[in-house]
Fold:
Amino acid sequence: MVLVESPGIAIGGVVATLVAFVVIRWDAIRVDVARPTLWAAIAAIPVSIGFSMYLFASVPMTGILVTANTGLVLYGFEREVTTGEEESLEPGSLPNRK
Structure:
């Protein structure tokens, strides 16, 4: 059994994971993203993995940050696709100009 040197960080990781799940699910419902609970889990699970890597593995900090942010970035892309406006692109025209 591995004992955590800093229980505050472990508790903070659990809280951060739960907060990420709740906030992303709320946002996904608000902007009408398909499967909000799935997207909340996709975003929250890497946060918990990042905290676990910090606490239990000898991993460089950059790897921890990339892992913890992966789900948030994926959700951000999905949110952008869901809320983006469909603009027809025509050769020789600038976006947002008619």
